[in-house]
Amino acid sequence: MSTLPPGPSGLPVAGSTLSFVRDPFSTYERWAEEYGDIVATNIAGRTFVMVAHPEHIERILVTDQQHYGKGSFQRDQLGDIVGDGLLLSEGEFWHEQRNRLQPEFFREQLTQYATMMVDETRARADNWTSGETITLNSELQHLTLAIMARTLFGFDIEDAEGQFANTARTISERFNLSHVSTYLAAWIPTPRNRRYRRAMNNLDTVIYDVIEARRAQDDSPNDLLATLIAAVDDPETDLTDETLRDEIATVILGGHDTAALAMTYTLTALARHPDAEAEVRAELDEVLGDDDPTVTDLPALPRLDAAVKEAMRLHPPAYTLFRESNRPMKIGEYDVPEGATLTIPQWVVHHDSRWFESPWEYQPDRWTDEFEASLPEYAYFPFCGGKRHCIGMRYGLMETKLVVATLLQRFRFDFQLPELSFAAALTLQPAEPVSVRVTTV
Ligand code: HEM
């Protein structure tokens, strides 16, 4: 006899929809408290199974990964945006594309990007005047977009900034788990869907312009865009310009908003924890003095590393993963039907007191070698894990640390909101603009 996981019951359509849509974060937490590590529920007619124990998560992402695909829930939501790009593609096609793109994220390449990252950060910060209030999350989103455009696609974002303005946020909002329409098709003409359509059109225009300009260029830089264009132009492959568009959209959307959030949450956490901030500043003074940070400095900055790691624990930019079982599976003692949508919430696991003492406190000091050695593998997984782990993990971590270090060397950030609150969009968005006053140090 099959044993389904426990979970909240209710009318089949409304099911758990209302409470979840009202507040996905506390609903996830409540389910974990009431029903345990594996919880089944029905949201807008779809079976969701939340899995929140590191051992089960490891089975899904690593040991049994061949039985869990990216799934129809994610494809319905994101298929339009990222198409057959790396995030959603599967099987042999995914494997070949991953191998093709991976070298762009190797250590030697990253070293070349580091200087551009610091240069772009300085240029952005030069626009800030001491004493003014800025919207930190938007500033950092523009910055990471500019960094990505320059390092991976060799173009200057200023040419396209107008078209890009708010694109990522609009697209991320379309996925907001707190809106009933997220569970409905994107073609239904709600105002949010219309904004989303416009953002998508802008994104496509920019991407196709960039491809065209690069093809017309005589001496192309040796970057991710060059690698992708060479693959499409290679008669041995049957890749098309559409594949190219999908990979570019995937990298842009997967890579800049997440990194901007990691930076936002690190800087706001430090601004609210003066002791932790003082330790990071003292370390930067000692190791860097007035010099710009370089990639070789990073291993000498353990406090900065812990500050970022802890911010990504407390506020994981990708706050939940989704997978779909492609055959009936057993998770722990429960049966999970074929086609169930699994939700694997970093939000719950990173705040679980079984793994993290005082889980809601920002405590960078917890990240000692002994603590890390004692932590179950999948109690902390801001970049996912297994074969589908984030291809941009090293890039994103390096970028976050270089940007945070460069900004702290120049400014003090005074957080202007009473609290941070969050929206469960595609990524963990701040619910309100993050206003901070910047003062030159
Ligand atoms: C620093 C912040 C970042 C975070 C928190 C983050 C998080 C993640 C997570 C959780 C996944 C797995 C998604 C899933 O399996 O459903 C992922 C995948 C991915 N990320 Fe990131 N990411 C970050 C930065 C980046 C950067 C900088 C890039 C590109 C430059 C990038 C590109 C991608 C791509 C292409 C995938 C799909 C990989 C595949 O399935 O083969 N990410 N990321």
UniProtKB/TrEMBL annotation:
Protein's name according to its UniProt entry: Cytochrome P450
The record, for Pfam families, names:
p450
GO MF annotation list: heme binding; iron ion binding; monooxygenase activity; oxidoreductase activity, acting on paired donors, with incorporation or reduction of molecular oxygen
- Would you identify the family this protein belongs to, as annotated? Belongs to the cytochrome P450 family.
- Which species is listed as the source? Haladaptatus litoreus
The entry's keywords: Heme, Iron, Metal-binding, Monooxygenase, Oxidoreductase
